[in-house]
Amino acid sequence: MMIIAAADALTGWFVSHYILGDVSLLGLSLLQGMVFAWWYSASGQAAQCRAIPSARVMTVGIVVQNEYPHVGLVRPRRLARSLTRAGHHAVILASGRKDAAAYEALEEAAVHRFTYLRRSWVHKLIATASPLNLVWSLWIVRVARREKLDVLVSSNIRVALPTVIAARWLSVPVILDLEENNREAVKLYPKTTVTHYLIRNSRLVGWLESLAARLSDHVWVVVEENVGRLSQKGQALNKVTVLCNTPSLDEVHRKPPCQP
Predict the structure, then answer these.
(1) Has residue 245 been placed in a domain?
(2) Total structural domains in the chain?
(3) Nearest to residue 140, comparing CAs of 167, 103, 107?
(4) What 8-state DSSP symbol labels residue 194?
(5) Same domain, yes or no, for 185 and 98?
(6) Strand, helix or coil for residue 105
(7) Dihedral (Cα; 28, 29, 31, 37), 10-degree rounding
(8) What secondary structure letter does DSSP report for 55?
(9) pLDDT means over runs of 10, the chain (260 residues)
(10) How far separated are the first and last CA of the chain, in Å rounded?
(11) Taking the model in full, what pTM does it have?
């Protein structure tokens, strides 16, 4: 059709008398299609399109340091809900009480709870999420293989190192979700026991945060200021993404309006 329009612009008499027949129109359309196909294949456009990977459904494991569901785990729940609504599969790996089910299928995700040695007094020790608790790494690997996880997300730094070790073992990407500025946050926590002076030491927590960010493939932060803070510690800017704590619309409308 482009050829016909060009010819009509040059000489309308020639087009109206010789080219406007149905057979001529069909022939010119086929000729134009052949020319476009030749240009498309010769210019490399087809190869570029074939190089773009097609979207696929992913199974994402979210490792949390507390029991689940938990009133304080708002961000992991929203992440799981967003993944599920987008057509992916979310799996939450969490601690749990001795009487809690080892597996539970919730609306937003499938939940696996730590169940090693539940009948023993040792369970309370190994079920507590800790950067030094490598038993969690073994458990994460076991769940990841069962669920065929494509990506692991570490929800904050207490479970970061066990998650990173499990991800390296499985050869899957790992994302660190920094829900807060941990180094500054622990300064506000009271120190009432001897162990608090260790686990709530701002320098130690800051070093652990930097190490976890360095070992992770990608880092999520809540605010833009944390991007600059991590970049000053040597993290590449393209490795850090801001993922805000924006509430979903259904959560907003589900609550009654505040009365003055």
Answers:
(1) yes
(2) 2
(3) 167
(4) T
(5) yes
(6) strand
(7) 160
(8) P
(9) 50 47 50 52 46 70 91 89 94 88 94 89 84 92 96 93 95 92 80 81 87 91 78 70 70 49
(10) 66
(11) 0.72
